[in-house]
Amino acid sequence: MLKLFLLLLLLVGLAVLLLSVRLMAGRGFVKTHVDQSKAMRQRGIHCVQHQDAAARSAHKVKVKERAEVQAETSN
Q1: DSSP character string of 12-65
Q2: How far, in Å, CA of 75 to CA of 69, rounded?
């Protein structure tokens, strides 16, 4: 039982060491966020927050929110 535990502990330690080699070599983590990826930016793909902000910007044919409609009708 103790031999098995030590063997598993050694394997987990080895896995952690191998996974951290990239960080020790001076490279950073892989950028997984959409806006941080150069390939995604070249394709014109943005994160949801950016797309939402762009959609909410003022347009000529903007759909009015319920609060705006209620404020106009109460006046």
Answers
A1: HHHHHHHHTHHHHTT------SGGG-HHHHHHT---HHHHHHHHHS--TTPPPP
A2: 10
Rounded to two decimals, what is the model's pTM? 0.37
CA distance 71 to 5: 69
* 35, 50 Cβ separation under 8 angstroms: yes
With H, G, I as helix, E, B as strand and everything else as coil, classify residue 32: coil
Does a structural domain hold residue 9? Answer: no
Mean pLDDT of the chain: 79
Range of the domain at 51: 30-56
| Domain count of the fold of the chain | 1
Q: Average pLDDT of 9-29?
A: 83
